[in-house]
Amino acid sequence: MIKNSEVRYAASPREVKRMDTQELRDEFLVEEVMTVNEIKWVYSHYDRFMVAGVVPKNDVTLETVDELKSEYFLERREIGIINIGGKGAVTVDGTVYELDNKEALYIGQGNQEVVFSSESSNNPAKFYLNSTPAHKAFPTKKIGTNDVEVVELGAPETANARTLRKYIVNSVVDVCQLQMGMTSLKSGSVWNTMPAHVHDRRMEVYFYIEVPEGQSVCHFMGQTDETRHIWMQNEQAVISPPWSIHSGSGTSNYTFIWGMAGENLDYSDMDTANIPDLR
Ligand SMILES: O=C(O)C(=O)C[C@H](O)C(=O)CO
Ligand SMILES: [Zn+2]
After folding, report:
1. Nearest Cα residue to atom 3 of ligand 1
2. Per the structure, how many domains does the chain have?
3. CA 182 to centroid of ligand 1, rounded, Å
4. Residue ranges making up the domain that contains 199
5. CATH number of the domain within which 109 lies
6. How deeply is 147 buried, as exposed, middle or buried, from its count of CB atoms within 10 A (0-12, 13-18, 19+)?
7. Which InterPro entries does this UniProt record tie to the protein (predicted)?
8. Can you say which residues are annotated as belonging to the binding site for Zn(2+)?
9. pLDDT tens by residue, 214-253
10. What is the ipTM of this complex?
11. I need a surface site. Which of 38, 74, 94, 257 has the fewest CB within 10 A?
12. 165 touches ligand 1 (CB under 6 Å)
């Protein structure tokens, strides 16, 4: 068993209201997600959601961590994987699943050996990983770009025109509680998830990618009448508590991967804020 993990406890709205910039960043921002040849987990106490990334220039095996007190990582967990790099493969108990850029894999509870690899170490795969507790073993399934559910949202006039792709949702793959997808802002649009919403039944983690060099994304969080912001760079992730809005605005367009877990699998269960009511 290796110690390659960090715990983030669950903070309440009352605590967060009093946090300064550094405290907010320490609590919610995951600055380094993609690590070469190793996996460094962040374990959030919001719905026990785990987030990490791996760039396997050599083969990397998924190991359990102290926090889980389990024989192997997926003993009581499920995991979702989206590749944002070059061609790679994930081998699950001997079965090889090749994953090209923007292809995903869901692996159900009970699989014992998971190995990440790249086709070429010069253009390695970059696997983004989200994991949640699981109560049932659902089959492992690859989700290609043609399998996803695509939704067009927003408009250029409100600078929020974007394409949302649902990869790991219960209409695409059987899951216990994990949901994952990817949203891409169109050129000229900068606002994601605006109007902002809260879903007290589920927490969420955002992983901002494809932020051009020299640009940044300002992530918004907090209660609708008490918002805070965190400036984020390319390939950083942020934990969004269930009681918090989650929205962002960039200095250019960008993409992000969202992952959720909690009480239900109902993607549409969200309470939308009235934009002029945001404070
Ligand atoms: O741009 C959006 O809108 C999203 O991507 C919304 C997220 O998927 C979300 O917050 C789901 O609850
Ligand atoms: Zn949401």
Report:
1. 193
2. 1
3. 9
4. 5-277
5. 2.60.120.10
6. middle
7. KduI, KduI/IolB_isomerase, KduI_N, RmlC-like_jellyroll, RmlC_Cupin_sf
8. 197, 199, 204, 246
9. 999 999 999 999 999 999 999 999 999 999 999 999 999 9
10. 0.98
11. 94
12. no
Size of the chain, expressed as the number of residues it contains: 279
Nearest to 73 by CA among 35, 111, 127: 111
Dihedral sign for Cα atoms in the order 272, 273, 274, 276: negative
Q: Which two structure tokens, joined as six digits, stand for 82?
A: 């989206």
CB 46 within 8 A of CB 242: yes
Give distance in angstroms: CA of 122 to centre of ligand 2: 36
Q: Identify the residue whose C-alpha is closest to ligand 1 atom 5.
A: 183
Beta strands in 127-213 (DSSP E): 127-133, 141-143, 149-153, 162-168, 179-185, 191-192, 197-198, 202-209
Query: What pLDDT was estimated at residue 1?
Result: 44
Residues tagged in the binding site annotation: 197, 199, 204, 246
Rounded-to-integer distance, Cα 112 and Cα 278, Å:
46
